[in-house]
Automatic annotation (TrEMBL):
One GO location term (cellular component): nucleolus
Entry's family note: Belongs to the learning-associated protein family.
Organism (species): Zootermopsis nevadensis (Dampwood termite)
Domain of life from the UniProt record: Eukaryota
One GO process term, biological-process aspect: dendrite extension
Spans through the membrane: none
Renumbered residue ranges of the record's region Disordered: 114-136
Protein name: LLP-like protein
PANTHER family for this protein: PROTEIN LLP HOMOLOG
Molecular functions per Gene Ontology: basal RNA polymerase II transcription machinery binding; RNA binding
């Protein structure tokens, strides 16, 4: 980076601002979180905001309820449904609808379109020649 006087001065001033705004931001965060100067949080109004439950009671409830499917099995079923991949033609790289894959760049799409058009024209010409030979 540049070593001019101006850049040194700006760097110095940014450091001072960072320090000053850091103190203000910390005070604001403490105020929002309800943390006092001595580091304790206010737990008076916590019942209005959320219900507090211990981990033991949650585990006991979980043991009482029989599980039909575990979370992993349910996740696998969902993942299998979501993994429907479009099938692309290996030569043209297009799917059933004629669209190119997302990962193919625009430049490559143009290039492939030109190649595919030439291949199609070549097949048409060959087909026309075959028809003419059959007539003769």
């Amino acid at each position: 980076m540049a070593k001019s006087l101006r850049s040194k001065w700006k760097r110095k001033m940014r450091a001072i601002k960072r320090e000053r705004y850091g103190k203000k931001e910390l005070a604001l965060l403490k105020k929002v979180l309800g943390i006092d100067e001595n580091g304790d949080t206010e737990m008076k109004d916590i019942d209005n905001i959320a219900t507090v439950i211990d981990a033991k009671s949650i585990q006991e409830k979980r043991k009482d309820v029989p599980e039909e499917k575990s979370i992993e099995e349910a996740g696998k079923v969902l993942m299998e449904i979501d993994q429907v991949k479009p099938k692309y033609n290996k030569k043209t790289l297009r799917d059933e609808c004629g669209n190119y894959p997302e990962w193919l760049s625009r430049r490559e799409v143009k290039k492939r379109a030109i190649v595919n058009r030439k291949r199609k024209d070549k097949l048409k010409r060959k087909h026309i020649k075959d028809k003419q030979k059959k007539k003769n």
